Amino acid sequence: MIIGVPKEIKNNENRVGVTPAGVTELVRNGHTVYVQATAGEGSGFVDAEYEAAGATILPSIEEVYGIADMIVKVKEPIESEYNLVKDNQLLFTYFHFASHEPLTAAMIERNAVCLAYETVERADRSLPLLVPMSEVAGRMAVQQGAKYLEKPLKGRGILLGGVPGVRPAKVLILGGGVVGTNAAKIAAGMGADVTIMDTNLARLRYLDDIMPANVNTLMSNEYNVRQLLPTHDLIIGAVLIPGAKAPRLITRDMLKDMRPGTVLVDVAVDQGGCIETCKPTTHENPTFIIDDVVHYCVANMPGAVPYTSTQALTNATMPYVLMVANKGWKQACADNAELKKGLNVVNGKVVYAGVAEAFNLPYTPVEEVL
Description:
Layout (H helix, E strand, L loop, with lengths): L1 E4 L14 H9 L3 E5 L10 H7 L2 E3 L2 H7 L2 E3 L17 E4 L7 H9 L3 E4 L14 H18 L21 E5 L3 H12 L3 E6 L2 H10 L4 E5 L2 H7 L5 E4 L25 E4 L20 E4 L2 E4 L9 H22 L1 H7 L1 H4 L2 E4 L2 E2 L2 H7 L11
Parallel strand pairs: 1-2, 1-4, 2-3, 4-5, 5-6, 7-8, 7-10, 8-9, 10-11, 11-13
Antiparallel strand pairs: 6-14, 12-13, 14-15
Helix pairs in contact: 1-2, 5-6, 9-10
């Protein structure tokens, strides 16, 4: 198979879809890899490393899309890439379709085959290609929250861990999954007073067992959320429903209950966000303020630490990329139930229920396209 690795062109996205190590594996399996010039530089990989691994460097993104059977990316194609997608071309990347109707419409129109990292799902309901970036984003959410609590950045002027004789900041984490667990670890390690909320009592019991003494667990419901908002300094939205829009846990009217300088970090923003007032921002302009509350809603948080993120991501994606390259997408998805759940849009048909529901589009069972 011919695999193309274009340079990411989303704002401040420095990750790359395949590392030189990944190229080596693909070439060793008999595949041809084309990498756009400077695609890996943001992650610390120069063109010479890709060439040494067996890739061919192409100067433009148009040439990469034009020659490849499968495009391996990190983020969804942006508007300037839509017309580069060929009929029946396979794209393997993060899509987050349910929060982006124009992208969904474009991929349907282009007759593409869209395999989404975020909906590849194991039998135990874990999401192996989302986990590494969720780990990065959860840890970064606390770093960024701590920074924006500083007064020059319009925060409350509170040090997350406090100092002897002064109380630490209070951190509220909505969601006890991978993002929430990693956020709690970092916040607790910095000395904050942490509360993590979830609707799954079994998950709360588990978290209560493994977390240090400065992490409390609480059942997530609207009453409990409203009770805690006035007393917490940093609130992290870490809720995910695979392939569907995130539920709204903090509404516009709740902002009035928060103290000026409270910081909201919505890690779920690329799935529509779990905070009503959040809208996607960029690393270039990461925050905005509503009712004196600081909102940090960067949709590609791991893109700020690309050296770590790219390696963590490709460690997880490469076995699946190889499976698809070796067998073709149809056979690979027919043989592997995890990959099959990654199919979202196939040749003009929406084959993932959460995406169809988000935009009231016709739904085709994935078995009909295999």
